[in-house]
Amino acid sequence: MTNKNIALVERMYQLFHEKNDVLIRELFLENVQWNQMEGFPGGGKYRGIDEVLEFIFSGFRNDWTDWHAQTERFIDGGSSVFAIGHYSGTYRSTNRPVRAAFIGEYVIEGGKIAAFHQYTDTYLIARAMAAV
Question: Where would one find the signal peptide in this protein (predicted)?
């Protein structure tokens, strides 16, 4: 079991919650590949920790009230860690709340996060963001 890999991903979620981008940066490879589902806020493919921090992490902080990615368990996949949990928050411009289950795959290389692949129900997120 790769407990170090699980601890790395757990630490990333903790630092995200604390909004500590300085320490988050240390957990990722500089050229990390980030794959956010289309239809999800910031959906698309990003390369590099600067893009992840600017277009993904700051977007949640700016556009959502109390955005949380609450993990419930982690699965050791050898060179990957799967985080299972749910997203929750309220979209600022509509004041609509959301709660949606997710699975995130984190690919680990050399003790750092090299890639992320997201799987979630984008309909629930889009519904919270809809003005109607």
Answer: none
For residues 45 and 116, the answer to whether their CB atoms sit within 8 Å is no
Over the stretch 15-64, which tens digit does the pLDDT of each residue have?
Answer: 999 999 999 999 999 999 999 998 888 889 999 999 999 988 888 889 99
Rounded CA Rg of the chain: 14
The CA distance from 60 to 132, in Å, is 21
93 and 72 in contact (C-beta within 8 Å)?
A: no
CA–CA separation, 112 vs 70, rounded Å? Answer: 21
d(CA 55, CA 60): 9
